[in-house]
Design goal:
An 8-stranded mixed beta sheet has the order 1-2-3-4-5-6-8-7, sandwiched between helices. The chain contains 5 helices and 8 strands; from the N terminus they run E-E-H-H-H-E-E-E-H-E-H-E-E. The protein has a domain of about 120 residues: 3-Layer(aba) Sandwich (Aminopeptidase), CATH 3.40.630.30. Strand 1 and strand 2 form a beta hairpin. It is globular and about 45 Å long.
Length: about 180
């Protein structure tokens, strides 16, 4: 599941995170939600309550976190989880896609999303879902990863008194039913 990307800034490794990455995961997630509060549903305060061992698949959740790393520094991350409920187990949800500013537009976000989709496919998931705030500029990346718009969640987020819609997107892994 580890992949190396050649970027204009150097080689980047995309790999599954482990519990040993917990402190660095919390730091980069806090950076993401602080710098881009309208792109993520979490607040910096909520990030401190996350159980990163559980999120990285080392706990009871069926989930994983993938990181992009250059020279020992985490420069991006995304997570994916699958519900434990019987009626929901056919789908997984991608969350928290983030790449630090100097590394954007190098294919790293796409590699992170595809790693999450591959994780889901290996578990027999039929469809992967995500949400995105249109203002974030990430729609193109998700389209390139095979996701299609399925709807809108109006006023999904409220930041500083302003409401933000989220675009609902999905990608079928198994053949889509007709």
């Amino acid at each position: 599941m580890t992949k190396t990307l050649d970027t204009p800034r150097g080689a980047v490794t995309v790999r599954p995170a482990s519990a040993e990455d917990a402190e660095r995961l919390a730091a980069i997630r806090t950076e993401a939600v602080t710098l881009h509060p309208t792109s993520f549903g979490s607040t910096p305060e909520e990030v401190t309550t996350y159980d990163w061992t559980d999120l990285t698949g080392g706990g009871t959740r069926e989930s994983a976190v993938f990181v992009a790393e250059h020279a020992g520094e985490l420069i991006g991350l995304t997570g994916v989880f699958r519900s434990a409920r019987v009626k929901d187990a056919h789908h997984a949800d991608v969350w928290g896609v983030y790449v630090r500013e100097p590394w954007r537009r190098s294919g790293i976000a796409q590699a992170l999303v595809n790693a999450a989709v591959d994780w889901a496919a290996a578990r027999g998931v039929a469809i992967v879902k995500l949400t995105v705030v249109p203002e974030s500029g990430a729609l193109g990346c998700y389209h390139r990863c095979g996701f299609r718009v399925t709807g809108v969640d109006p006023a999904a987020l409220k930041v500083d008194g302003k409401y933000y819609d989220e675009i609902l997107m999905s990608r079928w892994i198994a053949p889509a039913p007709r």
